[in-house]
Specification:
The protein is an alpha/beta fold. Helix 2 runs parallel beside helix 3. The strands form 2 sheets. It has a 7-stranded parallel beta sheet, with helices on both faces. It is built from 7 helices and 9 strands, in the order βαβββαβαββααβαβα. It is 40% helix and 16% strand. The protein has a single domain, classed as 3-Layer(aba) Sandwich (Rossmann fold). Strand 1, helix 1 and strand 2 form a beta-alpha-beta unit. The protein starts with a strand and ends in a 6-residue tail after the last helix. InterPro entries: NAD(P)-bd_dom_sf (IPR036291).
């Protein structure tokens, strides 16, 4: 299985990338981004790209892949809606179009978030924009799946790039075992998210918009490598 990962240097993407590199079913991973991942692995390839609304220059390098795990995103805190929409709608739609042109049968796994609202009725800007993105991706290909995790524990040694989220996760991470006991349907890990994506590509998913509980159940079916 050949996988493309967007956002492999982010808190979520690092865990997803790690899950891919550890899974024997994955033979190659192409990390597309503006900065290097800082990792070396026999299965890992990297593609430096700056313009996430135009993939014309690298279109030929996106061919022959089985899936894209799209983990690229940004915090909406203090961000104008127009700017947030560029990152959260324009970028993933441009990537999906380019990937489908290069690899028509590709599975597109998009990391959204718990609370995303495809109806457009919510007052939360991020949830509305993410909802629009989900709807557009689902209409684009039957091989698109939306992942809506709640609390995500990061890969050990990684932190969120946004300072407020980095602080939040420093507080939440030690509490993760307790949260898993009292609210297991609302917490997952970035590596389990990656395992669930791999499961989706290999055997499908129970639905096209997946909750934290779905993610954990699918991840459990793929034992992590030693």
């Amino acid at each position: 299985m050949r996988i493309i990962v967007f956002g492999a240097t982010g808190m979520v993407g690092q865990g997803v990338l790690d899950a891919c590199l550890r899974d024997d079913a994955v033979t190659e991973v192409l990390a597309v981004g503006r900065i290097p991942t800082g990792r070396t692995h026999p299965k890992l390839r990297e593609l430096h790209h700056e313009r996430f609304t135009d993939f014309t220059a690298v279109q030929d390098r996106l061919a022959g892949y089985d899936a894209c795990f799209y983990c690229l995103g940004t915090s909406a805190l203090g961000m104008p809606e127009a700017d947030y929409r560029v990152v959260s709608y324009d970028f993933p739609l441009a990537a999906a179009h380019a990937l489908l042109d290069a690899s028509p049968g590709i599975t597109f796994c998009y990391v959204s978030g718990a609370g995303t609202d495809p109806t457009g009725k919510t007052r939360m800007m991020w949830a509305r924009v993410k909802g629009e993105t989900e709807s557009a991706l689902l209409a684009l290909t039957p091989r698109a799946f939306m992942f809506r995790p709640g609390i995500i524990t990061p890969l050990p040694g990684t932190t969120a790039k946004t300072p407020v989220y980095a602080l939040l996760y420093r507080v939440l991470t030690p509490l993760a075992p307790l949260i898993r006991r009292i609210a297991p349907r609302h917490i997952t890990s970035s590596t389990d998210l990656g395992r669930a994506m791999i499961h989706t590509v290999r055997t499908g998913a129970p639905r096209r918009a997946l909750t934290t509980a779905d993610i954990n159940e699918m991840a459990a079916s793929r034992s992590p490598a030693p």
